[in-house]
Design brief:
By secondary structure, the protein is an alpha/beta fold. It is built from nine helices and 27 strands. The strands form seven sheets. A six-stranded mixed β-sheet has the order 3-2-1-7-20-19. Strands 9-16-10-11-12 form a five-stranded parallel β-sheet, covered by helices on one side. A five-stranded antiparallel β-sheet has the order 23-24-27-26-25, sandwiched between helices. Bound molecules: flavin-adenine dinucleotide.
């Protein structure tokens, strides 16, 4: 077994393979030289200094030795010779395989001006360390892109005493993933926490007298000491370009992670997991690429089982579970959160949005309400109705009100 990529998808696949009893050799390659680490803390407690590099380590030589996994760091795959069943690396090394797992993930998308001094993207531990050095109290930072990572960067910057401005070309930046009503709630919430420029893009960034000049699409200009960019990713698929693996918005896979060729047939013994992959999601009737940690973990379990028991490969039904820590609040979501039919129950600083399709609960977003998140996830999994969850949320809100002094 060769696994290309030793981040969460690759590491969890290797661990799951051993847990499932896979007895063959496992070689796991990664282009980075750093020991594998988890990425979610890079924009959260690692950036604020509440966690150290040791706290976010995902896998080390000790565990590699214990599980008999040959971990090769600083080794970049440059091509896949499927005929010879070999991964070819930049160093000239060749890794023959009987099974291959593609877990090469993604990298931050970089606009043309991203190479300027003072402009950063965030995908690696080194990026996080460089950004942390720039978060000097009293300095200014412009954050381009108000998705989850952009908002977390704004939150960390503000916590460090930095004056942050969060910029996004969309008036309601999260509407695309949460629908317009919930997107608007979060946009208002962000406006209450940090300076925002929503509905205007950044057309250019240029150096100006020791700082950076950010030009907005409406012609206005901002000055910032640092510019942080969170505008999505590009997939690490260049090494697959000359292979028969079908690339279509990711490595196209069936519902158990088997990579497909251009005719839609599984390529024997080749799987893909994590951000780089685009699996068929039976509940949606479409291939979906998901850029979230929990999804990578779920997929790695499915692929490990499919490798060990090819005949028993089961279709995976993703939970689409995600979390984000911002401005002292925890946002959690799961299921299908673009359904138009949504009911929001607000209880002070905590709230829940419950999405329904034909009366059934299909998606949930919570802010500071983990208990409801868990209840809703169970309801989604069991095909329960949205109305029951709305009643539960209202009952919890009333219970909390009654418990407050004077309530
Ligand atoms: C700052 C940040 C915060 C995040 N926060 C959250 C969060 O709060 N919640 C959440 O659900 N998700 C979050 N995510 C997303 C989550 O971290 C990703 O979904 C997850 O890292 C995907 O894992 P992966 O293994 O598929 O890919 P990646 O983590 O992208 O790893 C791919 C690995 O492959 C290696 N590689 C690439 N090309 C090659 C090659 N040619 N040869 C060898 N190795 C190669 C890379 O070096 C890398 O180590 C966050 C991501 C970032 C960057």
């Amino acid at each position: 077994m060769v696994i290309v990529g030793a981040s969460v998808a690759g590491v969890r696949t290797a661990q799951a393979l051993r847990a499932e009893g896979y007895a063959g050799t496992i070689t796991m390659l990664d282009a980075e030289s750093a020991e594998p680490y988890d990425k979610p803390p890079l924009s959260k407690n690692l950036l604020t200094g509440a966690a150290s590099a040791d706290d976010v380590r995902l896998f080390g030589e000790g565990e590699a030795h214990e599980l008999e996994i040959d971990l090769r760091l600083g080794v970049r795959a440059v091509s896949l010779d499927l005929g010879a069943r070999t991964v070819v690396c930049e160093s000239g090394e060749r890794f023959p395989f009987s099974q291959l797992v593609i877990a090469s993930g993604a990298r931050a998308r970089r606009p043309a001006w991203a190479s300027l001094t003072g402009v950063f993207t965030l995908r690696s531990m080194a990026d996080a360390a460089a950004i942390r050095e720039r978060l000097v109290p009293g300095s200014t930072v412009a954050i381009v892109g108000a998705g989850f990572i952009g908002a977390e960067l704004a939150s960390a910057a503000q916590a460090a005493g930095v004056q942050a401005t969060l910029i996004d070309p969309l008036a309601t930046p999260l509407a695309r993933i949460l629908g317009s009503e919930v997107g608007a709630l979060l946009a208002d919430w962000h406006r209450s926490k940090v300076a925002t420029e929503f509905g205007v893009g950044v057309t250019d960034v240029s150096p100006e007298a020791g700082s950076l000049r950010v030009t907005l699409s409406d012609g206005r200009r901002l000055n910032a000491d640092t510019v942080l960019v969170g505008i999505g990713v590009e997939l690490n698929v260049e090494w697959l370009l000359d292979s028969p693996i079908h690339l279509d918005g990711g490595v196209l896979c069936d519902a158990s992670g088997r990579a497909l060729d251009a005719w839609g047939d599984p390529v024997p013994d080749v799987f893909a997991v994590g951000d780089v992959s685009r699996w068929f999601a039976p509940g949606r009737g479409a291939h979906v690429r998901v850029e979230h940690w929990t999804n990578a973990v779920e997929q790695s379990q499915v692929v490990a089982r499919a490798v060990v028991d090819p005949g028993g490969a089961a279709a995976h039904h993703p939970s689409f579970a995600v979390w984000s820590d911002q401005f002292g609040s925890k946002i959690q979501m799961s299921g299908y959160t673009q359904a138009e039919d949504v009911v929001v129950v607000i209880d002070g600083e905590r709230w829940v949005a419950l999405y329904a399709d034909g009366g059934s609960l299909v998606g949930v977003v919570t802010v500071n309400w983990p208990r409801l998140q868990m209840l809703a996830r169970r309801t989604i999994a069991s095909g329960g109705t949205r109305d029951v969850m709305v009643e539960q949320a209202q009952a919890l809100r009333e219970h909390a009100a009654a418990a407050r002094p004077g309530g």
